[in-house]
Known about the structure:
Helix content: 10-25%
Distance between the termini: 122 Å
CATH superfamily of the largest domain: lambda repressor-like DNA-binding domains
Radius of gyration: 55 Å
Largest sheet: 6 strands, antiparallel
Strand content: 25-35%
Structural class: alpha+beta
Shape: elongated
Amino acid sequence: MTTRDEARRGTKELRTDAGRSPAPADPTPSLPERLYAARERKGVDLYRAERDTKIRSRYLAALERGDYKELPGAVYTKGFLRNYALYLGLDPDEILVQWRRERGDNAPAPQVISVPKPIAAPRRGLTFSPGVIVAALLTVAVLVVGAYLALQILRYAKPPTISVTNPQEATISVEEGTTSYTLKGMTIAGGTVTVEAAGGSRQANADSTGAWSLDVDLRRGKNQFKIDATDPATGKHSDETAQVVITLPFPQIEVPTLTVDQPADGTTLENGAIPVQGTATNATSVSIRATYDGPPAGATARSGGSPPAAPAQIDLPIGDDGTFSTPLQLSAGRWSIIVTATGANKSYSLTRHVSVAFKGVNLVVAVKGSPAWIKVWVDGKLSSVTGGAGKTYQPGKTIAFTGSKSIEVRSGSSGATFFTLNGQSIGALGKRGVPETWLFQPPDSPKKTQHQ
Length: 452
């Protein structure tokens, strides 16, 4: 049986009991009937009334049955009646008077403290005061500034990237007769792209999408390009450079071309370490040899002696960019340096005439065969090259020293230390593993000393 049925049953029982009473019928409805009738008019059940009033439905049913023994007590009953009457639209004071009368309590009603109506007040709509608007604007501004700073920090911390989309492979060959090629790729928007080649460097700016392109000139042989990106806002370069090698084949019938940049023809040098460098095309190798032409201008030829021996021919490979370079050791005198570029059964030569007139002491020290500890004094003072403690050099290392009067060398392995004095090869002066000190003071011959 539901609470509603119990309430109706209680009301009917009250009516039946009232009918059996010999007293005359009261035309005024009883309190339970008034409460029940008012709820029916409101069109709600006890469960809805329970949610709205926050009074348990069993207590509301007890009020509608007049079964006050089911209620916690008189104080709670009066509170329930007042709230329920307010909810049903009845006069709470009149309901309390009728409740006392039906209970047989005719004493004047004591002052009752009104219990606040439990019905929740309607929710207020959103209101925007000036303070709320200002706070919202400040919050948005802080978020925008924070996002901007985070973006800038990320941008400054991260270097740009660089990629090449054309050609798709890092090493390609093009057809004979091609004179230029268009490099394409991607980097950051607005980035500066630098392409370095043997003939110099060129730059291009990426568009708003980061795409870039640049036309580069090609020459016969291997054309090597190094590609770098720079962020103009931060000045940072890409962590890695992209490299592209484009090979333009040589026609087999073409004669090699040769350019000698150093030495210039007719140059007078003060030591024998002569740099020979230049550029060759259509060639697979370059050879360098020298011939002795006589003593320096103004000097007399050696009496009864043979001319100084010419150095052996040097064969050099050609770099990818066509360049070649090597030092050439020559003794005092006038020399002819012949540079020859050799290609497919073709060769081309250039000659440079130089004069070597040594001043002071020029000593080249070479370590061969095994490591050697070396300490050097130039004009009586320790050389900054080896320092006061000396240094250990590995085989293949070559060091040059120049002094006004003398050079003294202490070697931990005299047989692994080879000397060239003023262009004349002297070789090793001792045995390997034996420490010795040698003084070079032209025109005197090298002399062993005890300098430690």
